[in-house]
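Recap from last week: sequence in, structure out.
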Amino acid sequence: MSKTPTLLANYVEAQAHEATVGANEVISPGLRRLVLRCSDFTSATIEPCDVTAFRVSRNEFRHYTPALIEGDALTIIVQRHDHPGPTPGHDLVEGWAEGDAVKVCRWSSARAFTWDPAGVPGRGRQTAPGDGRPVVLLGDATVISLALCMAERAGRDGRDLVTVLEVPEADVDATRVLVPEATVLPAVEAPGAVLDAWIRANVDALRVLPDPVAYLAGNGPAIQRQRTLLRDVVGLDRKAVKTQPYWAEGRPGL
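Predicted structure tokens:
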């Protein structure tokens, strides 16, 4: 993660929502459900692909994807980490207890990874419910919050959504409960290998979708491979594939 100059970090934190922990529960060996409460949230909205952050040091933040807002409660599904090395975001979240005060940074989407009402990258064209392009979302356990947010929004907009997630085997059942519409597959050691195989096995089915837009998130090298498969094998236009790396091997831990 890149570092933020302290002056800017102070400014970002000063604009944050003052929340409290409503719940912080382990729901499977690798997944945690975090619920943060704040009166600001009752009038707030989230878009799929929005990202919030928590300050973990003088000049560092760790970023997380909001899943749902219900009343004054913001829910985030967090992947727990047990690998060696520094994991400041994981350590921070794991240490929170119900009632603890938390500063929740204001959320937004990266310019190249946003939800468009019509599924047309960059155009912002408004359509009637059910008139948008179908959506394909591929990712790993770090993408569960995004999958929840997309499922809610696609259902509200009447858009078709195909979600495929690869997660550690111990987290498969919990993920299927969280995102019942998704295809949830047990991951193997190589990040993204299961999704690579799924794309190759479903080329014809993907080609049947009328002008889909694909969102790839999670492991950086994996989503680059999957982008190539969707473009070169399935035949999607490059502008129809949006990518957002959340992590990569050998990079500072979450």
